[in-house]
Amino acid sequence: MARIVKKFGGTSVGDVDCIKHVAELIKADVDKGHEIVVVVSARSGVTNELIARAKSIDPDPVDREMDMLLVAGEQETIALAAMALHALGVKAVSMTGAMAGIMTDTSHTRARIVSMDCQRLVDCLESKQVVIVAGFQGVDLEGQITTLGRGGSDLSAIALAKGVQADLCQIYTDVDGVYTADPRLVPKARKLSEISYEEMLELASLGTKVMQARSVEFSNKFNVPFEVRSSFNDIPGTIVKEEVSSMEDVVVRGVALDKNQAKVTITNLPDKPGTAATVFNGLSQANVVVDMIVQNIGRNGVANMTFTVPRDDTGRASKAVESILETLGGGEVTLVGDIAKLSVVGIGMRTHSGVAEKLFAALGDTKANIQIISTSEIKISVVIDENDSDRALQAVHKAFGLDTN
Amino acid sequence: MARIVKKFGGTSVGDVDCIKHVAELIKADVDKGHEIVVVVSARSGVTNELIARAKSIDPDPVDREMDMLLVAGEQETIALAAMALHALGVKAVSMTGAMAGIMTDTSHTRARIVSMDCQRLVDCLESKQVVIVAGFQGVDLEGQITTLGRGGSDLSAIALAKGVQADLCQIYTDVDGVYTADPRLVPKARKLSEISYEEMLELASLGTKVMQARSVEFSNKFNVPFEVRSSFNDIPGTIVKEEVSSMEDVVVRGVALDKNQAKVTITNLPDKPGTAATVFNGLSQANVVVDMIVQNIGRNGVANMTFTVPRDDTGRASKAVESILETLGGGEVTLVGDIAKLSVVGIGMRTHSGVAEKLFAALGDTKANIQIISTSEIKISVVIDENDSDRALQAVHKAFGLDTN
Prior knowledge:
2 copies of one chain form a homodimer. By secondary structure, chain A is α/β, with parallel strands linked by helices. The first copy, chain A, has 2 domains: 3-174, Acetylglutamate kinase-like (Carbamate kinase, 3-Layer(aba) Sandwich), CATH 3.40.1160; 255-399, VC0802-like (2-Layer Sandwich). Chain A contains 11 helices and 18 strands. The first copy, chain A, has helices spanning 16-31, 46-57, 63-87, 119-126, 152-163, 197-205, 213-221, 275-285, 314-328, 355-365, 386-399, and strands at residues 3-8, 35-40, 92-95, 102-104, 113-116, 130-134, 137-139, 145-147, 168-173, 194-196, 226-230, 238-241, 254-270, 293-299, 302-310, 332-345, 372-376, 379-385. Chain A has an 8-stranded mixed β-sheet with strand order 3-6-2-1-9-11-12-10, sandwiched between helices. In chain A, strands 14-15-13-16-18-17 form a 6-stranded antiparallel β-sheet. In chain A, strand 4 and strand 5 form a beta hairpin. The longest helix of chain A has 25 residues, at 63-87.
């Protein structure tokens, strides 16, 4: 007997038939004698519908009320899922985030979990009931309903796995697991049987859309291993867990490509102390998340600075930079939208050399021009032209032996 | 400055434009300096949609999960209504039934309010915020979400009016108020400016669909006067309040017609002590609510018994009776679906005589044959053929001077 947390996203519970299918999956585990906690999202599309309705009332709706609105989506799913289990003769009980004991701070629409009080939930498990918890939601100390931000249901699942000391946490999604690269772009990409938190974290934040980085960070912090797997077949997925020494034998675990970036270059910027701080303060106040940053040493008292931002934020970023340059009294801004960020990731890099050379050689062979380079302990990222990026991704994947390993 | 509870039903908050209109109505009162509590239902159609989805998963869904499911409907409306007020520059905060302090027993889908703890709500009012409460829902002592049954939002409003000691409780609906008869059937029906709880109660339970009897009972018990009025115009509605002596001058306040009844007749029933108890126990166990009952004294050791049931329950009632008759060892059952119940109501009847005679005369003039008669202190009801009922209603309305008073 094991205690298992199973999380199903919006597409897995998209309609009545999907919900019945999920109930069958759960029943199979119950029949094996396992204790099951289920975390579900809103049916796919529902959250966007609710947001659209809110925006047609107020283009900038207040955060507290957005939370109150959006939790309705998950609440519908938990009730329907509990009914589907009852219909199969399985005892089940639904719980809101608050009832499941997910306590958060008061930051509406992006609350952070501060503690877990899972006694009520554990009591239900011990009385042989499946507990179905609304993902994405929590409650603050004053009893106000909060939400954990987009992708928050994964976070709910991992926090609950920690809270009930689960043996296993399974994140069901529409992909089989984590691949060495996006299989739609690299036909030879292979599914990984396991991956470390840190590698997953870099892949998650680099455009591999399996999970949000926040959930992986949380699982890393509290050491909650989890499995990413598909709800549409019964194939084992990818286990995401603490690093083990054998993982270091693989130098590069995967290659990620992020096409959702734009490049901002500021030229002729007055080169004096505090300039960079002024620029990035201004961007942060405009709520623009800056990713890679490169600054060249200036000549003639001017500097050139380049950074990347999410492509959706380009307008906001450019407006913010214009106003910063006015304050600084100089500089011109250039935007380039059609770039892509390619990254190789692997904890083996820490102990192996030659990764950068191999990457640059592979890119050179495909005539992809490198515009920016950025490195960390377990990853190397380059910005290249978007038009070269698919070809480059395949070449790099092959160069690191990921096609065949 | 007054403290006002305003309740808006599903059609009043049916879509985004309706919700914006409701926000305007509320703002007008806020601008006058009033403290406002708003109770809203789910958008019209949403509750039925959710029920349909539940039934497609499990034809007989478990009550606890139905409650969890259905409250999602109101939760959406309170958030959208709060946003609409924010968009108009009015400070507003939404609350679930639990947050508003509506404490109930544990009877899911038909919970009864056991206490009100409105401190949090009053604090918000005193800090000049409009409070928008999800109608129809409450919470039991263990924190389980409950619902108050169909029409429960009216009950929420009246309970909150009591809980916050409101000066006024306004029930907004799609009719202008309470009429002497259904204006669609009696063109000369007039709107009443006031009516006593007891009269309203009889009218509510007799097929005048303005409010559910339970809400009126509650307002009577706790003496919470309320106004029934339209959300589509600014015309004063009908005040429902404690009886005052001047009300007795009007002998008949209104005439109600209920076409949603069926008649069940049992003939040749063994006439011995306990027979009636066996019959009505059996019906109660089959969850059939019996309305009017008549029994004729039997000849040759048999009795004839007639009663009415809601037309939707006819199948269930007839099945229950068949099985009861088997137990009793005799009797035949006959069903008649096309009947109508016509009632005249007025607290003045207590002190005036001749009401029954006038009623029977009016019915005789229209050739409507009376099948059953039943009387109480403030009402006389008769069952007649449904085909005669519209004509009879108009004649009785005229006979009691309600056309012109």
